[in-house]
Amino acid sequence: MRNLSTIFSTIGYLALTIFCTAKVNRKISASENFVLPSIHSNLKQTKNVMDAKTKAIVAHITLIGWIIALVVNSSNKEELSSFYIRQMLGLIVLGFGLGILSFIPIIGLIASIASLGVIVLWVISLIGAASGEERSLPVVGEYFQEWFASL
Predict the structure, then answer these.
(1) CA separation, residue 42 to residues 15, 36, 89, 141 (Å)
(2) Residue 33: inside a domain, yes or no?
(3) What does the alpha-carbon distance between residue 67 and residue 89 come to, in Å, rounded to a whole number?
(4) 135 DSSP 8-state letter
(5) Residue 58: CB partners within 8 Å, gap ≥ 6?
(6) Among 109, 115, 117, 134, which is least packed, fewest CB within 10 Å?
(7) Angle at the Cα of 98 (from 89 to 150), degrees rounded to 5?
């Protein structure tokens, strides 16, 4: 189980690195006047930091990414990002529940196998978020959307 969490953490780290590199891939020319902006202009720029697709992808990067996406989405709700925030909350709760059940001797084996299914569902959801389409997860997706509709 430790190997799976290491793989999951590595995938999340790589996705975050690729995302940050793509956003900062801008060269500052030597002739450009570089002046530190005021605090007020910084606040204006940070209002629309992420679009809906970016928030949906960030929600997939561990629990911290989900919290960041939830906070950013709360000020400017967009349907695509809300959809994947609800979906990821369901996967997080399902993963924690299966993790707790894995400590019970007989049920633990079944829960460990089911946790592999959660990883597969996570990949399916991440692919849907990256494509910018609302793709509900098989079997559990509609339940997550219904249960967490307030998000």
Answers:
(1) 26, 10, 31, 38
(2) no
(3) 10
(4) -
(5) 19, 50, 65, 66, 68, 69, 72
(6) 109
(7) 20
- Provide the whole-model pTM: 0.64
In 3-state terms, the chain is what percent helix, strand and coil (to 5)?
A: 70, 0, 30
In a domain, 118, yes or no: yes
Q: How many domains does the chain have?
A: 1
Helix (H, G, I), strand (E, B) or coil at 64: helix
Residues 41-86: tens digit of each pLDDT: 444 444 556 788 889 999 999 889 999 999 998 888 888 899 999 9
The single-letter code of the amino acid at 48 is N
Is the residue at 14 inside a domain? no
Q: Give the residue numbers spanning the domain of 118.
A: 51-151
Instruction: Tell me the per-residue pLDDT of 93-139, one tens digit each, with 9 for 90 and over.
Output: 999 999 999 898 888 889 988 999 999 999 999 999 999 888 888 98
